[in-house]
UniProtKB/TrEMBL annotation:
Keywords: Membrane, Transmembrane, Transmembrane helix. The chain crosses the membrane at residues 21-43. Its main location: membrane. InterPro entries: LEA_2, NDR1-like. It is a single-pass membrane protein. Residues 78-177 form the Late embryogenesis abundant protein LEA-2 subgroup domain. It is found in: Membrane. One of its GO terms (cellular component) is plasma membrane. Coiled coil: none annotated. It comes from Durio zibethinus. This is Uncharacterized protein At1g08160-like. The lineage of its organism: Eukaryota, Viridiplantae, Streptophyta, Embryophyta, Tracheophyta. GO terms for biological process: defense response to other organism. It holds the Pfam family LEA_2.
């Protein structure tokens, strides 16, 4: 009878020791992963990527019967300040919008950006007989008569990071350059526009 009681007492103790051992191992694993991430961060020292719309223009802007024809040209400056991280831009889409309506869309060729580098990305987007809502047509007509229009420029890209020989999985990069003023007069200077980044 006494032996049965002793065995019953030992079984919960063994179970508790097992749970404590598993919990200790998990905690140690979490600490090690955290330390590895911290060391990687200290070694790589990631820095925020900077994107600026350096130039923009519009040509052949024509509004007829609620339709638009126009050609937009943009130069986006992409600055990678990191000394360790390079970037693959595998798929890139440019979009021009006005009052939430897409005016033009285009894709550009993939490229690779090394660390500590400024790459200028050029894109030409065309609106070909694009149907506009009556309100958008009216507002664009008013803005054209003023000599300039304000548009939003969007860029979406699938990117991968490269550190040494290691390459990351794909991430989605979204860039928005808001309230970009495009002049119809060639002699008016384009003002550079900093862009917001979502990654």
């Amino acid at each position: 009878m006494a032996n049965n009681t002793a065995q019953a007492t030992q079984q919960p103790a063994k179970h508790f020791n097992l749970v404590r051992c598993v919990a200790t191992c998990l905690l140690a694993l979490i600490v090690l992963v955290g330390l590895a991430a911290l060391i990687n961060w200290l070694v790589i020292r990631p820095k925020r990527f900077v994107y600026t719309l350096e130039n923009g223009s519009v040509q052949n802007f024509n509004l007829t019967d609620n339709h638009l024809n126009a050609t937009f040209d943009f130069v986006l400056g992409a600055y990678n300040p990191s000394s360790k991280i390079s970037v693959y831009y595998d798929h890139i889409e440019f979009t021009v919008t006005y009052e939430d309506q897409t005016l033009a869309f285009n894709t550009i060729d993939p490229f690779f950006q090394p660390h500590r580098n400024v790459t200028r990305v050029e894109s030409k987007l065309e609106a070909l007989n694009l149907a506009l809502s009556p309100s958008t047509f009216k507002d664009l007509t008013i803005e054209k008569s003023s000599g300039e229009i304000d548009v939003d420029v969007h860029l979406m890209s699938r990117i991968r990071f490269k550190v040494g020989t290691w390459k990351s999985n794909h991430h989605t990069l979204r860039i928005v350059c808001s309230s970009v003023t495009l002049h119809f007069s060639w002699y008016k200077h384009f003002e550079k526009k900093p862009c917001e980044v979502e990654l």
